[in-house]
Amino acid sequence: MFNIWRTVLLALACGAGALFASGGSGVAAESSHANRIRPYEKNPYYWQYKGEPVLLLGGSKDDNLFQIPDLKEHLDLLVGAGGNYVRNTMSDRKDKGFEVYPFKKLPTGKYDLNQWNEEYWKRFENLLQWAEQRDVIVQIEVWDRFDYTDHREFENWSANPYNPANNINYTPSESGLLAEYPKLHPGADKQPFFHTTPAMDDNAVVRKFQEAFVDKMLSYSLPCGNVLYCMNNETSTDPAWGQYWMKYIRNKAAKAGVDVYVTDMFDVGWNMDTEEKFLLSFDRPDLYTFLDISQNTANKNTFKKQWENLLFVRDRIKNNPRPVNNTKNYGSSEWPPSSGYHKRVWRRWTTESAVQRYVLNVVGGCASTRFHRNPIGGIGLTKPARDCIGALRKLEGLVRMWELAPRDDLLTEYEDSKVFLSADPGRAYILFFLEGGSAILDLTGCDGDFRIKWINVLTGKWGKECKIASGEKVTVSSPTSGSWIAAIVRYGTK
Questions:
Q1: Is CATH 3.20.20.80 the classification given to domain 2-403?
Q2: pLDDT digits over 403-455, tens only?
Q3: Binning pLDDT at 50, 70 and 90, where does residue 469 land?
Q4: What is the pLDDT of residues 184-212, one digit of tens each?
Q5: 3-state SS track over the chain
Q6: What is the pLDDT of residue 344?
Q7: CATH 3.20.20.80 spans which residues of the chain?
Q8: Which CATH superfamily is domain 405-490 in?
């Protein structure tokens, strides 16, 4: 069925729109459309997949996951830990040495952008098929600015097929692309590759190859109901760039008769209440049909600020609620490097903080969170990551996050920025103690008794269980210091 769907959708992408109207074996049944990932009908802050609400928890050891040689085993490791969510940049940069480019390399050593490297696309197809078989959601990032730079430790543009020095399709003067990309961080937004859209440089010479690449990608991904689309990794260019591709992908999907959900990931996520690009995405549900705020877990944010941003976003979109994703959750004690810039900015990103920020995303009402690759920036799918995912799945066995909402107003006498609460008052409460401690929880007016079960998010193990009487304010104290979740559920609650 996958190959039939791919044939139909590739034809649709090329303009053969009559195929769907004719019916036949290539047409998906209505039930298959309902099974695709989409915002949860009863609470659109979350996702549903195959008709059921899901909390997306992930972690993986690479960003361009489809390129790794042990992909199937890595997906099995994720699922075995309770994970169901991966990030996949369509990247081809030679980080590990086994990556391949999407275009065919000629005997001359140059690339032809009109011909494909089928190995690249077979790897991509494998990821989609194997993830779908395991009910794993794939969040694609179409463009990654680090693939097109030679800045600092990145030497990617000099070998990239889009570089006019490396292909037979255009020259620097024809394309407006330099053979040597300026030695600036890509955040400086000096790479015209990201300015080709009509509202920007209107560079049709390069854009036609970009569009052909996206069409090829969609020929594999549109048949799959487990795919989300993010346009960029940490983009700092004008939002018009990402908006062009969001509209482009949605138009192709509409012609194919399927629904897809799209967004963009902006750089600089420290102050989401003032950053113009984030505010734009929050206020345009017609364009940004879900949100990704991964930079909220970056080092400049304290836990308090991370939490405040989560609350701000939920409130800002309350009239048009959408899932809020975090495809990158930072932190690793295996990093930083021994010296320099990265040592300064990464010093607070420990393995413990990665787990704490991950849990904070969940308690704060996010639809997804994923541990960033390890060891550069994250803990990937290492044992601490798997233990944390397992802890949250244990929690889900007691309380479903899509039935709760952040409610710190029900807490008193607790250390600020160290205790966080999500609740469905009178029925279920989740208390997250960042570093142990106690808090007074207001159960005034609640009927029945409650049970409290503790889970250590750093080990994934259960703690003690006890009974709490309702109808009053009660003191809740963690079993020990460290990061604990308390699930407080009224007896008889399903």
A1: yes
A2: 999 999 999 999 988 999 999 999 999 999 999 999 999 999 998 899 999 99
A3: confident
A4: 789 999 999 999 999 999 999 999 999 99
A5: CHHHHHHHHHHHHCCCCHHHHCCCCCCCCHHHHHCCCEECCCCCCCEEECCEEECEEEECCCCEHHHCCCHHHHHHHHHHHCCCEEEEECCCCCCCCCCCCCEEECCCCCEEEEEECHHHHHHHHHHHHHHHHCCCEEEEEEEEHHHHCCCCCCCCHHHCCCCHHHECCCCHHHHCCCCCCCCCCHHHCCCHHHHCCCCCCCCHHHHHHHHHHHHHHHHHHCCCCCEEEEEEECECCCHHHHHHHHHHHHHHHHHHCCCCCEECCECCCCCCCCCHHHHHHHHCCCCCCCEECHHHHCCCCCHHHHHHHHHHHHHHCCCCCCCEECCCECCCCCCCCCCCHHHHHHCCCCHHHHHHHHHHHHHCCCCEEEECCCCCCCCCCCHHHHHHHHHHHHHHCCCCHHHCEECHHHEECCCCCCEEEEEECCCEEEEEECCCCEEEEECCCCCCEEEEEEEECCCCCEEEEEEEECCCEEEEECCCCCCEEEEEEECCCC
A6: 56
A7: 2-403
A8: Glycosyl hydrolase domain; family 39 (2.60.40.1500)
